[in-house]
Amino acid sequence: MSDCIFCKIAAGEIPSVTLYEDEDFRVIFDIAPASKGHAVLLPKAHAANLFELPEETAAKAILVAKKVGAAMMEVFGCDGLNVLQNNGEAAGQTVFHYHMHLIPRYAGDGVGISWKTGSADMDALKVKAAEVGELIKKAERK
Ligand code: AMP
Ligand code: ZN
After folding, report:
1. Which of 46, 86, 122, 126 is 20 to 30 A from 2 in CA distance terms?
2. Taking a C-beta distance cutoff of 8 angstroms, is the pair 72, 102 a contact?
């Protein structure tokens, strides 16, 4: 996509600090990090979000996250690492080219990745669970 900043970064047309690159992905340091070492994994082929990402790329992405994340843990000496990914504006996505955040965490760092817990209506959710199951079966029959 010609006007997508992550397409340009992934292609090397806009400079970035790259910590990993292969045929399909580039992993760069985030320009506005949540913590020291915050990185984002970008596929080189444009896809707006997880649901547009080809299955093969989605499967490879988690393997790259595992490999790069393990090295980051050692290099930054962090105590943990959040791997997270936003789909859609309502979910906090601001750049509409799929990316996975790799966020090193340090004990007591105060990085605010959290949510308030509510209560679950399990009877209503049983109906939704069946609906999800049906939809997946339908998609798999296609
Ligand atoms: P999200 O809110 O999940 O869409 O995350 C977008 C992320 O991309 C944010 O953490 C931004 O700080 C980061 N970001 C935006 N532009 C750049 C850039 N030019 N280089 C590196 N990271 C960027
Ligand atoms: Zn793009």
Report:
1. 86
2. yes
Q: Which residues line ligand 1 (CB under 6 A)?
A: 5, 16, 28, 30-32, 40, 86, 92-95
pTM of the model: 0.95
Kindly state whether residue 136 falls inside one of the protein's structural domains.
no
User: Could you read off the pLDDT tens digit of each residue along the chain, which spans 142 residues?
Assistant: 789 999 999 999 999 999 999 999 999 999 999 999 999 999 999 999 999 999 999 999 999 999 999 999 999 999 999 999 999 999 999 999 999 999 999 999 999 998 999 999 999 999 999 999 999 999 999 8
Q: How many domains does the chain have?
A: 1
Task: Establish if 138 belongs to a structural domain.
Answer: no
Q: Where residue 102 sits, what CATH number does that domain have?
A: 3.30.428.10
* Active-site residue, 101 included: no
